[in-house]
User: Fold this.
Amino acid sequence: MSVLLIAEHNNKELKPFTLNAITAASQIDADIHVLVVGKNCENVAKNVSEVSLVKKVLHVEAEHYENFLPENFAPLIVKITESYSHIISSANTFGKNLMPRVAALLDISQVSDIIKVVSSDTFIRPIYAGNAFATVKSNDLKKCITVRPTSFDPAPTSGGSAVIEKIDGIEASNISKFIKREEVKSDRPELGTARIVISGGRGMQSGDNFKLITAIADKLNAAIGASRAAVDAGYITNDHQVGQTGKVVVPDLYIAVGISGAIQHLAGMKESKVIVAINKDGEAPIFSVADYGLEADLFEALPQFLEELNKLNTIQK
Assistant:
């Protein structure tokens, strides 16, 4: 049987994490079908058809799918799952909102946040804030799975020629109603996909002091993150939170500034390729996972770091 993967998009562009989920799906079965649901999303369906690992694209258009309400999506997915053995989505806000509803309607157990595919029915997922890994085998005839996208490489976006099949949607649900969307607009890279992330913690002492991090992020074209302690203290908004209850990031470079390194935060960033920690407490747990550690006062270290970056930019010009 085939794998059905739910595409995440904004009706104009495919979200990058869908490509990571496609790679995970390809390790389960080579016959991958991608469901693209929305309004005026023909270009998204076309782009998905060009992904080399995709064999078929199911395209559904309707007014009530424009804003991606899971109450409208879930019954549609259940309707078309008869010929599929696996239903897969990314383990981000989109997938976490949608897939439990699908699993409940199908009366099956969901396997969440997998980081490795062992076989078509066995998967590995982190538990205890990433301090241990569980091998989970599902005996359900259908598997409902969410994938931690940062654990898989993105699928190639070219070389494919999948068939696009238009199918009918179903009537809108009256359970919920879309009111409005509020999004934070930023010219910075998206936190979940950025190559460089610089995060601040409680040691920043105030929201105004985050301008030190902002200045460095501008030079490095980096995304800005934060620990939960910084978010709870009101230094920065919660869409910047990295950790078990925030976003999971796996950048090439992660710079932790004034972050002690609670296990909840480490769960969201310890898979980063290179970790740099700046903290005046030499016993801070963050140093145990850091590739490079600087025991220093951040209010002295960050201005010096910025000065060196300015010198480097001057030389390059």
User: Anything to note?
Assistant: The chain has eight helices and 15 strands. The first helix runs from residue 16 to 26. Residues 115 and 151 are 5 Å apart (CA to CA).
